[in-house]
Amino acid sequence: MLNSIAALAIVSAASAPAVQVKPIATMQGQRASIFVPAPTGSQFAAGMENLTVKVIDAANRKTIAEFKEHKQQAMAVAWSKDGKWVASGDEGARIYVWDAKTGKRKVAMDVRHERGIQYLSFNDQGTRLISTGKEDTIRMWDTTTGKQTGVILGKGVNFYSAQWIPGTTNIIVATLGKGAQIYKSDGTLVASFGGHYDRGGYDVDFNRVTNRAVTAGADNRGNVWDVAKRTRLAILGGHTDWLIWSKFSPNGKVIATSSVDGTVKLWDAAKFTEIGTIADQSYVGSPLAFTADGKYLVTCSMYDSIQINQVTPPQPAPAVKAVKRKKK
């Protein structure tokens, strides 16, 4: 049942193409803290308040698989690029990798983090996983053995939301101390973007179609970055309190940001203009996920229940054309 005062987010008629984001269903009582989309289709994984992690299809709201081994709430989830595995990390620093179809555990990582897990990310091959811990470390894991293979110490920079940059071995991370940063997997600092008026950011999302990143700032703003040139392209102003999450649509044309002001805002990622607002969202900052088919934006309502929003027209990533080899 939908909240009766849920708002529509509609792009102005002057925008081309027009995009509409409309709430279509609220999964009442299904309270979540984190979402991550499957690499294809309309499924997403969600860390739930009841200590489970679920794979849900946004198209019909059915649960596909469920993982039940966490003893504390999973605040971080990730999905491997081949679609086979989901990783989840909880407030007790436990990290598991499990089958996305069956919910059966593949491996449990050694407990090395001293505090809860904030974020997880698979590399392109699914052979390595990075975890961001609340004790200001990024740790690297072998997804077959569960053994730690490396660690990056924040040394007071306050790491949030570290993720692999697709097609590379570099890591992009939001920090409260230095804004967005890029590291090599051996811990070498490559770049510091700064931004957010020295108040830093809680989330960073990279879009491989545009080679851009967006950060969610503690200064109530989003920042859009050209990752190759390491320059800021725009500041997204409009929220009235801290931003917690920021995500690109798969094609990179739309940005969603969420704030503790209880709204999710939509932005034109080319013109950097606000194109709509979804009201009555979580007041701890709604988690966000565009499904890979570009048809849905998953958020949390003001009661932290999962809300499915339909995106019209869909915003999927462009198909990758096969490269034909030349005959010798």
CATH architecture call: 7 Propeller
Q: How big is the Rg?
A: 19 Å
Sheet-strand content, in percent, reads over 45%
How many domains in all? Answer: 1
Describe the structure.
The protein has a single domain, classed as Methylamine Dehydrogenase, Chain H (7 Propeller), CATH 2.130.10.10. It is an all-beta fold. It is globular and about 45 Å long. The strands form six sheets. Strands 1, 2, 3, 4, 5, 26, 27 and 28 form an eight-stranded antiparallel sheet that branches. The protein is built from no helices and 28 strands. Mean pLDDT is 92; it is low at 1-17 and 322-328. β27 (296-300) and β28 (305-312) form a beta hairpin.
Descriptive keywords:
328 residues; mainly beta; Methylamine Dehydrogenase, Chain H; eight-stranded antiparallel beta sheet; four-stranded antiparallel beta sheet; 52% strand
Topology readout:
Blueprint: E1 9-10, E2 20-37, E3 43-48, E4 53-57, E5 63-67, E6 74-79, E7 85-90, E8 95-99, E9 105-108, E10 117-122, E11 128-133, E12 137-142, E13 148-153, E14 159-164, E15 170-175, E16 179-184, E17 189-194, E18 201-207, E19 212-217, E20 221-226, E21 231-237, E22 243-248, E23 254-259, E24 264-268, E25 273-278, E26 289-290, E27 296-300, E28 305-312
Antiparallel strand pairs: 1-2, 2-3, 2-28, 3-4, 4-5, 6-7, 7-8, 8-9, 10-11, 11-12, 12-13, 14-15, 15-16, 16-17, 18-19, 19-20, 20-21, 22-23, 23-24, 24-25, 26-27, 27-28
